[in-house]
């Protein structure tokens, strides 16, 4: 088994001369590639943090600061996908609705995850046996979803933003189970699943808004505000 990173030419350290962009981003790419390749080859449950550090060619003295846990290793994959989306910072099309903007953003994120698909399939299979890793990774996952909403020009830094983040997290989790088995060249199955899930989430959001008391309405029982 080849444990060398695809693009590695030597140990990665912050500030490597000649490394384009942020050195932390470059290290994330190396660690994510190594972790997902090992997970695809031997299963996530058999992939240790030390294995990933060695395969990525990152000195332990550097690795342990940024990737101290298995959840931190998984977070590198999430950050790579986030960076791919956020590097394209274009103003939102005023003619597009929020659902369409979110669809574009999330498909760009899935496109960025294609190189890691086999490893992610192993992670999805094995992660339920690691509740602590899942719990710790949840913080990064929430941050990622919040930034995907911001990339789609959906405001999350106001009241109710947490519900939007949780909702998009649920959408991503359900579509991910389709994505890891989607070998179509254009990710058509993933696109169909994402469209279905976003439409479902939109209906739930509309229903919740109808049930929520209006802030400018006079005090009265919530049930009377329905409709």
UniProtKB/TrEMBL annotation:
Q: Which InterPro entries match?
A: Homeodomain-like_sf (IPR009057), HTH_TetR (IPR001647)
| DNA-binding residues | 48-67
- Protein name (database record): TetR family transcriptional regulator
MF terms from GO for this chain are:
DNA binding
Task: State the species of origin.
Answer: Azospirillum thermophilum
Q: What are the start and end residues of every segment in region (Disordered)? A: 1-27
Q: Where is the HTH tetR-type domain?
A: 25-85
TM ranges are none
Keywords attached to this entry: DNA-binding
